[in-house]
């Protein structure tokens, strides 16, 4: 079972000041990338669209004596239109939760827009910095990362909402009776560490539910939440809704899941680019958003086919693991569904920025209107 690796930002224990190590090492990241850029991973090469590669007419008639003196119409072979190559920075490792992107590749949605998109796996904070500097045209990033970046003066812009609900929750065994934030008082809560989306979500839950953190024992346990809960090493744990709860449920273990999005509307993962690309080449942004949305829509409407495509893109999925991975996709689709796919809610951005400023996750105010745009979605 694979899980997202949380490396968005780091907070030293006992402090509320953001330590954006990846942002301070941006220059080093760019230099290393230029010198030794890892090969972009494209699990499924996007097939050409039916109209993108015309077949030149072949001359089939044999020459005759008369043809030596009679001019014949020449047929000039036409070359296929050149596709614009995009390296799309996504999560740390291939995962069934990236099914919409695999579908957009395999079904030719990117090719239909004149794009050749390769998925590049790595750390979210690196891709945010590279996108801000124009070293990458696009990346997938969460709303909290965009707010952090803008607070540091990085000109990234969120152009397409993917996850409609923030995918982080607090999980506990059903037998503990912990089914609300208030029930956490007097208990231990495991968390991967004081960084990333897990920590941001925990702070948001504390903030929105008015919890007294001094009454809760927060323990760093790494990415061992499922094991720590099942073996009762901690009373509850901060988890990804489509990962650890699915694992334990598939294993026949009853759990309670307290979703952060039930208490505060944090902006989650979506497609980001930078201000320069929006200004210089809005058509490229429009085509990228349109194709990615098609992949998302198709995955939601055709989950069986989407899972089959994802299996080809993620060879680590075994036959034994297939039921769990399919359940992961189903849980993910539940987080993606919306009547307005791709559209950002300005209120959610305001609420997210206000929370991060109030809790000290960012020290400077950000202009909410510059964090996102719906211009490429609402068309």
Question: How would you portray this structure in words?
Answer:
This protein has 379 residues and is of the alpha/beta class. It folds into 2 domains: 10-41 and 82-164 and 267-370, Periplasmic binding protein-like II (D-Maltodextrin-Binding Protein, domain 2, 3-Layer(aba) Sandwich), CATH 3.40.190; 168-262, Periplasmic binding protein-like II (D-Maltodextrin-Binding Protein, domain 2), CATH 3.40.190. Helix content is 36%, strand content 15%. The chain has 14 helices and 12 strands. The protein has helices at 21-24, 26-35, 99-106, 109-112, 124-132, 143-151, 196-209, 225-230, 244-250, 275-280, 282-301, 303-313, 322-336, 346-358, and strands spanning 10-11, 18-19, 84-89, 115-120, 138-141, 156-161, 168-173, 188-191, 217-220, 236-240, 255-259, 270-274. It has a 5-stranded mixed β-sheet, with helices on both faces. Strand 8, helix 7 (196-209) and strand 9 form a beta-alpha-beta unit. 46% of the residues are buried.
Q: Give the helix level as a range of percent.
A: 25-40%
CATH topology of the largest domain: D-Maltodextrin-Binding Protein, domain 2
- Radius of gyration, CA atoms, in whole angstroms: 24 Å
Overall strand count: 12
Order of strands in the sheet with the most strands?
4-3-5-12-6
DSSP helical segment count: 14
Task: Supply the CATH class of the largest domain.
Answer: Alpha Beta
**Which percent range describes the beta-strand content?**
5-15%
Mean pLDDT: 84
* Run of helices and strands: EEHHEHHEHEHEEEHEHEHEEHHHHH
Which CATH architecture of the largest domain would you pick?
A: 3-Layer(aba) Sandwich
């Amino acid at each position: 079972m694979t899980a997202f690796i949380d490396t968005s930002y780091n907070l030293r224990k006992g402090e509320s000041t953001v330590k954006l190590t990846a942002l301070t090492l941006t220059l080093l990241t760019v230099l290393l990338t230029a010198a030794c850029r890892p090969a972009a991973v494209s699990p499924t090469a996007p097939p050409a669209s039916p109209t993108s590669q015309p077949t030149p007419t072949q001359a089939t008639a044999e020459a005759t004596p008369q043809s030596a003196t009679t001019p014949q119409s020449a047929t000039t072979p036409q070359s296929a239109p050149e596709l614009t190559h995009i390296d799309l920075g996504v999560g740390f490792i291939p995962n069934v939760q990236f099914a919409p992107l695999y579908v957009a590749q395999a079904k030719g949605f990117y090719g239909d827009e004149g794009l050749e998109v390769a998925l590049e796996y790595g750390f979210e904070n690196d891709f945010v910095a590279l996108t801000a500097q124009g070293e990458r045209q696009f990346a997938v990033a969460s709303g909290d990362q965009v707010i952090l970046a803008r607070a540091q003066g990085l000109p990234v812009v969120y152009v397409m909402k993917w996850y409609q609900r923030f995918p982080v929750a607090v999980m506990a065994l059903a037998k503990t009776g912990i089914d609300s934030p208030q029930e956490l008082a007097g208990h231990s809560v495991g968390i991967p560490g004081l960084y990333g989306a897990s920590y941001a979500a925990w702070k948001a839950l504390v903030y929105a539910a008015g919890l007294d953190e001094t009454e809760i024992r927060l323990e760093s346990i790494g990415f061992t939440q499922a094991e720590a809960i099942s073996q009762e090493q901690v009373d509850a744990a901060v988890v990804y809704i489509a990962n650890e709860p699915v694992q334990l449920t598939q294993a026949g273990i009853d759990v309670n899941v307290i979703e952060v999005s039930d208490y505060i509307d944090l902006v989650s993962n979506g497609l980001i680019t930078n201000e320069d690309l929006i200004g210089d080449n809005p058509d490229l942004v429009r085509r990228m958003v349109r194709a990615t949305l098609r992949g998302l829509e198709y995955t939601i409407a055709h989950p069986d086919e989407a899972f089959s495509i994802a299996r080809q893109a993620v060879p680590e999925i075994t036959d034994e693991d297939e039921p769990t991975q399919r359940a992961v996709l189903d849980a993910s689709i539940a987080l993606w569904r919306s009547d307005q796919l791709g559209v950002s809610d300005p209120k959610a951005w305001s609420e997210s920025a206000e929370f991060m400023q109030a809790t000290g996750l960012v020290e400077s105010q950000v202009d909410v209107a510059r964090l996102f745009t719906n211009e490429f979605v609402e068309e």
